[in-house]
Specification:
- This protein has 341 residues and is mainly α.
- Among the domains are: 96 residues, Alpha Horseshoe (Serine Threonine Protein Phosphatase 5, Tetratricopeptide repeat), CATH 1.25.40; 109 residues, Tetratricopeptide repeat domain (Serine Threonine Protein Phosphatase 5, Tetratricopeptide repeat, Alpha Horseshoe).
- The chain contains 14 helices and no strands.
- The protein is globular and about 55 Å long.
Length: 341
């Protein structure tokens, strides 16, 4: 199917090469209607109307679709087979065509009548289809273009200008060359401006890229406690832990970095948690009526370099250190509000 895809891509740019690819695909899969249709379209675009006629007739027989009759008649007309083209047109009039192909049939018949020296009949057919508003805007633009073309050949250039302008107004996609025909008739046609210029296009492309937002000073302040990988800064976390320890009266158990965990002393009956400290949640919580046994030492796990704090009897509350205010708020994420001794 590579030949079939290449034929479709080259149809407008290089019809001859497109036909070569289409015929290569036909030699490999001649029984597929889509292949025969591609070969017909490429041959028609390349001006090879004999091959186009053969292929269109074949695909029409294979599919039973009557919508190929207008282009079959046009190929016969291009080959000078006027009588055969008229018979095909009559057959198409009795067939169930879609509205777009009905317009194409009118265009083919009007052109055929002009070729046969019956231009007034061709103009009549076009006028009727225009007055009936047959087909969508694109089809109506083609009808007006064909009508203007016949008027110009008649020598009626003033009316031809009006109908070329009407065709141009309906040709939204600019598929027709009504602008060029108007310039040939001496009409000053302004160039159509694009919907947006190149700068707008580049701006849209930049917005779609969704670049990273620039960091402002306020964002720098709010992100002060974050490390480059998104975790909280270790210094800020240590300051928070120290401030919370001083406010609550519970000693800080010290650093938890891998190199410092070797100095951590843990009783043999307790399992260290992931940070190397004893799991405090496993110890039983004394109730209000319990009295500590004075014969046993109740000491928490100690860390080298930190003083051990003996357990206090119930009812005794440790006094806060001098210079430390009670109800000290915990340190904020940016380091402000730290407790100073």
């Amino acid at each position: 199917m590579a030949h079939l895809m290449a034929a479709g891509e080259l149809l407008d740019e290089d019809p001859a090469l497109a036909q070569a690819h289409a015929m290569a695909a036909r030699r490999r899969a001649a029984r597929l209607p889509i292949v025969r249709e591609a070969a017909a379209e490429a041959a028609y675009a390349n001006g090879d109307f004999a091959t186009a006629l053969t292929e269109y007739r074949a695909v029409s027989r294979m599919t039973g679709n009557p919508n190929y009759l207008p282009v079959i008649a046009d190929s016969e007309r291009a080959l000078g087979k006027h009588d055969q083209a008229l018979r095909t047109i009559r057959e198409a009039h009795n067939a169930d065509l879609d509205v777009v192909q009905e317009v194409e049939l009118v265009l083919v018949e009007a052109g055929l009548r002009d070729d046969m020296g019956q231009r007034p009949e061709g103009l009549r057919l076009l006028r009727k289809a225009i007055s009936d508003r047959l087909g969508p805007k694109e089809s109506q633009a083609r009808l007006r273009y064909a009508y203007a073309n016949l008027l110009q050949q008649e020598g009626n250039e003033s009316d031809a200008v009006r109908w070329f302008e009407a065709s141009q107004a309906l040709d939204v996609e600019a598929d027709l060359d009504a602008d060029d025909r108007l310039r040939d008739l001496g009409v000053d046609v302004p160039e159509k401006e694009p919907d947006f210029d190149e700068e707008d296009y580049l701006l849209i492309q930049e917005e779609e890229a969704d670049p990273e937002p620039e960091v402002t000073e306020s964002q720098d302040d709010s992100d002060e406690g974050l490390s480059p990988d998104g975790d909280e800064d270790s210094d800020g976390a240590a300051a928070e832990a120290s401030a919370a320890s001083e406010a609550s009266g519970v000693p800080d158990l010290g650093p938890t970095s891998p190199e410092d965990t070797d100095t951590l002393t843990v009783p043999s009956d307790e399992e260290p948690d992931a940070e190397g400290t004893a799991n405090a949640s496993d110890e039983p919580t004394p109730s209000a009526g319990d009295v500590p046994d004075s014969s046993e030492d109740h000491k928490p796990a100690s860390v080298e370099g930190n003083l051990e704090q003996p357990a206090l009897p119930l009812g005794d509350t440790p006094e806060p250190d001098a210079g430390v205010a009670e109800d000290q708020p915990p340190a904020g994420p940016d380091g402000e509000g730290e407790v100073h001794s």
